[in-house]
Design goal:
Bound molecules: (2S,3S,4S,5R)-3,4,5-trihydroxy-6-oxo-oxane-2-carboxylic acid
Low-confidence stretches: none
CATH class of the largest domain: Alpha Beta
Number of strands: 33
Oligomer: single chain
Number of helices: 7
Strand order of the largest sheet: 24-25-26-27-28-29-30-31
Distance between the termini: 37 Å
CATH topology of the largest domain: TIM Barrel
Mean pLDDT: 96
Shape: globular
CATH superfamily of the largest domain: Glycosidases
Number of domains: 3
């Protein structure tokens, strides 16, 4: 689904602002026809989570109703109108002027409705029902029955998520009304490759079929200006553009070209879509990870879309701030733990030269109960939508199909292997991985390009004994490498740390302990050339549910606090990674 753009053929109205909001704890709204409109709404900011805006709603996960109204500009009565939601967590049902447009399941990916006929020339009333409750048959799941095989995961928390972040709910990213030509560009897929004698950019376009139309593709930048036309057959066209000496995209030089796709009839264009294209290659060769043919080490973080008051809502300033903090530490990479991030964040990753492991919201997957087929179908749908959304980003180097699935059950390996195979078939140009906490027992590692391992020896085990923890980490990394014979990313390691708490010698929860812990883990990883990535958990402290594991309902493993102030460990990383 194309990200909305404004140009001479395409217009966008953003519907962000204060919407009317009404919780529906007794689930009366559907039978009471609240889709037509409802009384008694209170103001609620969109985009943002509702949980931290209003005291009484902190643990309320829905259902709840949002409503807003808008008038259509006169000039918009021509063309096709799409209503696009960038992210609503978790289940969204949408009505326009009393007509139910449809539903969408899944919290972090965009969906849209064609509202050309539903929209009225005068006033319009848009109503959205959001249900973010936790249930075993959702992805990610919640309220999962305890399983003796899962040890750590049986720690109850409130709300009962089976993942370690607060289950924020609401309309989390912008809602936009988009006007496109009645026959328009529907999708653009860009693939780049380094082939002798230079670089190739392949572009596939899908569009509404318009008679005697051609697709024109123009690539500009870095002293090049290439253009080519292609015929459309059954709504599809593809072109290849070659360059002898392309300006490659890399972390140090995130060179981007401007790629414009037009639909042309005769001499006249009637639709246009522009995006940035970066030419780079990514591959695994033996034990090494190669970017543009050169070994690369991923230095960076897991992160969360999480900020005070706005919860999981998109705050563009926080996106900029987080890139600034990462740059300051010298990081060049992150994983979208544990769900797809905003499209705005992915755009900045392209511009700023970050290498991204892009993850579907398959966190806390379990395999002991019924409902496996439904969970798998939801994961597959997320993967399809994520690849469709993010495949044009040069920053994305790998797809991650799961984080810490409860893989000790026999149903896990085939489930995960099928997802890995699906990712590969959707996009053969990138790496595919999954993130494990069972290590040597993770059978699905054998089908991945890179094995991602989360480890907290010296924290959840070997507490207070960093050296013992690191010895165990070293031994396990060696065994894993021996068994799977592929590069490994240490995809999480970290220690909860109360900002301002000090102790020497270092004790758990002190800034000294976190700094020592991270330094030693990084030494273990760095002394093994086949450990091609070190992602610290976490960039910033973030909100979780309540449990005895989480002081003040916070995961405090950030090297920055939730309001983005550095702990000692941030300064350490900056020294180790050569930050600015
Ligand atoms: C993990 C999870 C992450 C948690 C982290 C922790 O392994 O992947 O979601 O937040 O551990 O801090 O326990």
């Amino acid at each position: 689904m194309l990200y909305p753009r404004i140009n001479r053929f395409r217009q966008v109205i953003e519907l962000s602002g204060f919407w009317d909001f009404r919780p529906d704890p007794r689930n009366e709204g559907e039978t009471g026809n609240w889709g037509r409109g409802f009384e008694g709404g209170e103001p609620m900011a969109v985009p943002a989570s509702w949980n931290d805006q209003v005291t009484d709603l902190r643990d309320f996960l829905g259902p709840a109703w949002y409503a807003t109204s808008f008038e259509l500009p006169e000039a918009w009565e021509q063309g096709r109108l799409l209503l696009r939601f960038d992210s609503v967590n978790y289940l969204a049902s949408v009505w326009l002027n009393g007509t139910r447009l449809g539903d969408h399941e899944g919290g972090h990916l965009p969906f849209s409705f064609d509202v050309t006929r539903a929209v009225a020339p005068g006033g319009n009333r848009l109503v959205v029902r959001v249900d973010g409750q936790l249930a075993p048959d959702r992805v990610p799941p919640g309220n999962v029955p305890a399983d003796p095989m899962d040890g750590f995961f049986n720690n109850p928390q409130h709300p009962a998520a089976s993942f370690d972040f607060f289950p924020f709910c609401g309309i989390h990213r912008p809602v936009r009304l988009c006007r496109v030509p009645s026959q328009s560009i529907e999708s653009v897929e860009v693939e780049t490759a380094l082939e002798k004698p230079g670089g190739v950019v392949r572009v596939r376009v899908r569009c509404g079929i318009a008679p005697s139309t051609q697709v024109r593709v123009r690539l500009e930048g870095h002293g090049e200006s290439l253009a080519t036309d292609a015929d459309i057959s059954e709504g599809r066209a593809s072109v290849s553009l070659s360059m002898a000496r392309p300006a490659l995209w890399s972390c140090q030089s995130p060179n981007l070209y401007r790629l414009e796709v037009q639909l042309v009839r005769g001499k006249d264009a009637f639709d246009s879509y522009t995006l940035s294209a970066g030419i780079r290659s990514i591959q695994v060769q033996g034990d090494r990870l190669l970017l543009n043919g050169e070994p690369v080490l991923l230095k960076g973080f897991g992160r969360h879309e999480d900020f005070p008051v706005t919860g999981r809502g998109l705050v563009p300033a926080v996106v900029v701030r987080d890139f600034d903090l990462m740059k300051w530490t010298g990081a060049n990479s992150f994983r979208t733990t544990h769900y797809p991030y905003s499209e705005e964040m992915m755009d900045l990753a392209d511009r700023l030269g970050y290498l991204v492991i892009d993850e579907i919201p398959a966190v806390g997957l379990f395999f002991s109960e019924g409902g496996l087929e439904r969970r798998k179908a939801l994961c597959a749908a997320c993967l399809r939508d994520l690849v469709a959304r993010d495949r044009n980003h040069p920053s994305v180097i790998a797809w991650s199909v799961a984080n810490e699935p409860h893989s000790r059950r026999s149903a896990a390996a085939p489930f995960l292997q099928d997802l890995v195979a699906l990712a590969r078939s959707l996009d053969p140009t990138r790496l595919v991985t999954m993130v494990s906490h069972v290590g040597l027992e993770e059978e699905a590692f054998s089908s991945c390009d890179v094995a991602c391992l989360n480890r907290y020896y010296g924290w959840y085990s070997e507490g207070g004994r960093i050296e013992e923890g690191c010895a165990r980490l070293a031994a396990e990394l060696d065994a894993l490498h021996e068994k799977f014979a592929k590069p490994i990313i240490l995809s999480e390691f970290g220690a909860d740390t109360v900002s301002g708490w000090h102790s020497e010698p270092p004790e758990m929860f002190s800034e000294e302990y976190q700094a020592r812990f991270l330094e030693r883990c990084i030494q273990v990883a760095s002394s093994r050339p086949w450990v091609v990535g070190q992602h610290v958990w976490n960039l910033c402290d973030f909100k979780t549910g309540q449990s005895i594991q989480r002081v003040g309902a916070m995961n405090l493993k950030g090297v920055f606090t939730r309001d983005r102030r550095p702990k000692m460990a941030a300064h350490l990383l900056r020294r180790l990674w050569g930050g600015r």
